C-alpha cells in the first residue's frame, strides 16, 4: 500500500504534466462528440440508419487501422505520430462543424470525415501507449496509469453531463468546433513532451506486424488475458444494447439511464484512486477476480431491478474494471520491451474491440427469441466465468510486479526539437 500523496506526485514530472493537461482537455472534447454527432444527424433530417452507418464506418476504420498503427508507433517517435493524428482530427472536426453550420450536410461527407478522424485516432492510441511509460520513472508507472484513467473518467463524467446541454444550447456545429479546439490543444501539449523513446531496428513490415502477435503468444499470462478479454467483450457488446433498454423501460426512463452513466464514471474514478494506492507482489491474482464483480453486479438489472441497487452495483463494478485496467496496463509496461509496446497494445485493443459490434448485433435477435432477462443473465454469467479463466494459467498467478529498477528518468530534447 502506498499513500495518496505519493500517487499525486506524478504531476511533478514535467512531461506527465504536459501530456495530462492536453489529454484531459482532449478527452473532455471527445465526450461532446457522440452527442453532437447524434444531434447533428437526427436534427438535420437524418435517420437512425444514417447515424448507424456513420458510427459503424468509424468503428470499422479504427479496428482495421489499429495493427498497422501499432507497427508505425514502434518504428517512429510516438510524439510525432500523436501530433500528426491530432492535427488530422482537428481538421476533420472543423470540417464536420462547417457542414452542420451550413445545413449543407449529407451522409457521404460526414461519413468520410468520420473515417478520416477514426483512422487518425487509431494511430494516436498505440503511440500514446508507447509514450506513457517514458513519462515517469519505473516506480511511478502504476500511479501515472491510474491518474490518466482518472482524468479520462472524469472527463467522461463532465462531458456526458454537459454535452447534451451544450449541444442543445449552441448546436452541433459548436460542439464539433470545441472538439476540434481540444485536438489542437492536445497537439500543442504533445510538442512540449521531451523524452527519449526506444525505437526498434526496422525489419519487414509484415514481420513487425506479426511480431506484435508473437509478443502476446509467447507470454502465457498475456495470451490468457487477451483471449479472456476477447470473450468477455463479446458479452459486453450485448450488455451495451440491453442495459439502455432495461434502464429506460424498467428503471425510470432517460433519467435512470443518465444516472447509470454517472455511476459508471464515479466507479471508474474510485477505481483509479484505489489502483493508485495499492501495490501488490502478484497483481493479477486479485485483478482478474475483481473483474468478475462487474457482471455479477450487473445482474441487479434483472433482480432486484431497483435503481438504487443498480447504481451501487454499477459503481462497484466499474471500480473493479478500472482497477484491472490499471494493473493490466502496468504489467504490460513492466514485462513487454518498450520497442514492442505499441504493437502489443494495438493487438490487445483490436481483439477486444472487434467483437463488441458482434455482441451488440446478436443482442436484439437473441433477446427477441429468448427474452431480454434470460439473455442478460447468460451474458453476465459468461462474462464472470471468462474473467476468472486467466487464473488457470500459472504464469498469470505467478506474475510479479517488477521492482523499481532505479533507472534514471532523463527528459531530453527530441532530435530536431
From TrEMBL:
Give the principal location in a single coarse category. Answer: membrane
**Region entry Disordered, spans:** 398-417
| Biased composition range(s): Basic and acidic residues | 398-411
Q: Does the keyword Protease apply?
A: no
Tell me which GO cellular component terms the UniProt record holds: plasma membrane
Q: Classify the source by domain of life.
A: Bacteria
Enumerate the InterPro entries for this protein.
Answer: Bacilysin_exporter_BacE_put, MFS, MFS_trans_sf
Which keywords accompany this UniProt record?
Cell membrane, Membrane, Transmembrane, Transmembrane helix
Record CDD domains: MFS_MefA_like
The record lists the membrane-crossing segments as: 54-74, 107-131, 143-161, 167-190, 229-248, 254-274, 286-303, 309-328, 349-369, 375-392
Location comes to:
Cell membrane
Single GO term (MF): transmembrane transporter activity
- Bilayer topology term: Multi-pass membrane protein
Which PANTHER family does the entry mention? INTEGRAL MEMBRANE EFFLUX PROTEIN-RELATED, STAPHYLOFERRIN A TRANSPORTER
What is the designated name of this protein? Predicted arabinose efflux permease, MFS family
Amino acid at each position: 500500500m502506498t499513500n495518496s500523496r505519493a500517487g499525486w506526485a506524478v504531476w511533478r514530472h514535467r512531461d506527465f504534466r504536459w501530456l495530462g493537461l492536453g489529454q484531459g482537455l482532449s478527452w473532455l472534447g471527445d465526450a461532446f462528440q457522440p452527442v453532437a454527432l447524434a444531434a447533428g444527424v437526427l436534427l438535420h433530417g437524418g435517420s437512425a440508419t444514417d447515424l448507424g452507418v456513420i458510427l459503424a464506418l468509424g468503428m470499422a476504420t479504427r479496428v482495421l487501422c489499429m495493427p498497422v498503427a501499432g507497427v508505425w508507433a514502434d518504428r517512429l517517435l510516438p510524439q510525432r505520430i500523436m501530433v500528426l493524428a491530432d492535427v488530422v482530427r482537428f481538421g476533420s472536426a472543423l470540417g464536420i462543424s462547417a457542414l452542420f453550420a451550413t445545413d449543407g450536410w449529407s451522409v457521404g461527407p460526414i461519413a468520410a470525415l468520420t473515417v478520416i478522424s477514426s483512422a487518425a485516432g487509431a494511430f494516436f492510441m498505440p503511440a500514446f501507449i508507447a509514450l506513457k511509460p517514458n513519462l515517469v520513472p519505473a516506480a511511478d508507472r502504476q500511479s501515472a496509469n491510474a491518474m490518466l484513467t482518472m482524468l479520462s473518467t472524469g472527463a467522461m463524467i463532465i462531458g456526458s453531463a454537459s454535452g447534451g446541454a451544450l449541444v442543445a444550447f449552441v448546436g452541433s456545429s459548436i460542439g464539433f468546433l470545441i472538439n476540434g479546439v481540444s485536438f489542437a490543444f492536445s497537439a500543442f501539449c504533445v510538442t512540449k513532451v521531451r523524452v527519449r523513446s526506444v525505437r526498434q531496428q526496422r525489419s519487414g513490415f509484415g514481420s513487425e506486424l506479426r511480431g506484435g502477435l508473437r509478443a502476446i503468444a509467447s507470454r502465457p499470462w498475456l495470451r490468457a488475458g487477451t483471449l479472456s478479454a476477447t470473450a468477455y467483450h463479446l458479452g459486453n457488446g450485448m450488455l451495451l444494447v440491453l442495459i439502455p433498454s432495461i434502464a429506460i423501460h424498467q428503471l425510470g426512463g432517460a433519467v435512470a439511464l443518465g444516472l447509470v452513466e454517472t455511476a459508471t464514471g464515479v466507479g471508474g474514478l474510485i477505481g483509479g484512486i484505489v489502483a493508485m494506492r495499492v501495490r501488490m507482489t502478484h497483481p493479477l491474482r486479485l485483478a482478474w477476480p475483481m473483474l468478475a464483480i462487474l457482471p455479477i453486479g450487473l445482474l441487479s438489472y434483472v433482480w432486484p431491478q431497483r435503481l438504487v441497487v443498480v447504481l451501487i452495483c454499477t459503481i462497484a463494478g466499474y471500480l473493479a474494471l478500472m482497477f484491472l485496467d490499471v494493473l493490466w496496463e502496468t504489467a504490460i509496461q513492466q514485462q513487454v520491451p518498450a520497442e514492442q509496446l505499441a504493437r502489443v497494445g494495438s493487438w490487445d485493443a483490436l481483439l477486444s474491440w472487434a467483437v463488441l459490434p458482434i455482441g451488440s448485433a446478436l443482442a436484439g435477435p437473441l433477446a427477441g427469441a429468448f427474452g431480454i432477462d434470460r439473455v442478460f443473465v447468460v451474458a453476465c454469467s459468461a462474462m464472470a466465468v471468462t474473467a476468472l479463466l486467466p487464473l488457470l494459467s500459472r504464469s498469470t498467478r505467478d506474475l510479479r510486479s517488477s521492482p523499481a529498477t532505479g533507472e534514471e528518468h532523463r527528459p531530453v530534447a527530441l532530435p530536431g526539437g
